[in-house]
């Protein structure tokens, strides 16, 4: 079921177009990633969705409520974490959660206990927030965003500043939330490897344009992109391979030869090399990754640091 529907969303400032005609949706029980380099338009898109900045044109529908026509009702269905969590450091985690929960009428105490458990803060929820690591603050903000049972959860660059353990913890809890609470989750990031592990689908954004939307499973199921052969005689192997795989790119790095072929050709190539006096010490397949797909579609790279 579609919880968020974005159609032709555009943001212009003067003659400059920050976001150009973006259209995508987010569904119950899935994590949708907005992937792109810094300055691609991800944060601008999120801020327009949640009403922090105005849009130039386009529509945003949350749980069938148009934000232009029924903004307050639409916002009842979302939880948002944009930039650094705004918490009261002198209060305990639980008191922060209790304070923010009072913004929504009739939140039972049992719900507070549920969200604390969901984000794994049971042991530290009564400690002061000033003692929390950045990862713990992020999880407390997540609990606050979840307390009113939103249908949609939106997080803008939630892994910024987190150490590797904090990133792993966040990934685990978001996946659990999508499954256990059946929440539609939208996450923006420039960390490609992390998005590949975290998300079900990826919307690639570059220079304000939506380049494409891909299912992570489809990317990982794609054909082998290339095969590497470790040999003892590249001087003999390359001429043989040029005859066997006409028109395919052959790359040599010391005694390793990389060819853009499918794995079905491996036995034939190994046999040809062996019969002509070339010893093959190893064969490794290289699969298409999200990074390969991004570079293929945009011609750019998103760095993982």
UniProtKB/TrEMBL annotation:
One of its GO terms (molecular function) is ATP hydrolysis activity. Transmembrane segments: none annotated. Keywords: ATP-binding, Nucleotide-binding, Transport. Residues 4-232 form the ABC transporter domain. It comes from the Bacteria. InterPro entries: AAA+_ATPase (IPR003593), ABC_transporter-like_ATP-bd (IPR003439), ABC_transporter-like_CS (IPR017871), P-loop_NTPase (IPR027417). Belongs to the ABC transporter superfamily. PANTHER family: ABC TRANSPORTER, ATP-BINDING PROTEIN. This is ABC transporter ATP-binding protein. The lineage of its organism: Bacteria, Bacillati, Bacillota, Bacilli, Bacillales.
């Amino acid at each position: 079921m579609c919880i968020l529907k974005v159609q032709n969303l555009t943001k212009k400032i003067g003659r400059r177009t920050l976001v150009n005609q973006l259209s995508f949706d987010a569904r119950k029980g899935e994590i949708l990633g907005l992937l792109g380099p810094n300055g691609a338009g991800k944060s601008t898109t999120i801020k327009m969705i949640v009403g922090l900045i105005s849009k130039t044109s386009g529509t945003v529908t949350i749980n069938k409520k148009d934000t232009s026509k029924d903004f307050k009702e639409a916002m009842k269905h979302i939880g948002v974490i944009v930039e650094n969590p705004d918490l009261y450091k002198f209060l305990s985690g639980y008191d922060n959660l209790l304070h923010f929960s009072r913004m929504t009428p009739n939140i039972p105490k049992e719900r507070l206990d549920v969200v604390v458990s969901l984000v794994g803060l049971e042991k530290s929820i009564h400690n002061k927030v000033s003692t929390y690591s950045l990862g713990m603050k992020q999880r407390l903000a997540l609990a606050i965003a979840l307390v009113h049972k939103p249908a949609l959860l939106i997080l803008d660059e939630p892994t910024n500043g987190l150490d590797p353990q904090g990133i792993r913890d966040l990934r685990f809890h978001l996946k659990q939330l999508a499954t256990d609470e059946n929440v539609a989750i939208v996450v923006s990031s420039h960390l490609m490897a992390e998005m590949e592990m975290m998300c079900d689908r990826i919307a690639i954004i570059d220079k304000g344009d939506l380049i494409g939307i891909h299912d992570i499973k489809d990317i990982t199921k794609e054909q082998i992109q290339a095969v590497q052969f470790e040999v003892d005689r590249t001087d003999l192997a390359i001429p043989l391979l040029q005859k066997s795989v006409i028109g395919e790119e052959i790359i040599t790095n010391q005694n390793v030869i990389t060819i853009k072929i499918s794995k079905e050709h491996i036995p034939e190539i190994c046999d040809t090399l062996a019969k002509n006096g070339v010893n093959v010490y190893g064969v490794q397949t290289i699969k298409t990754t999200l990074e390969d797909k991004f570079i293929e579609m945009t011609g750019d790279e998103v760095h993982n640091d």
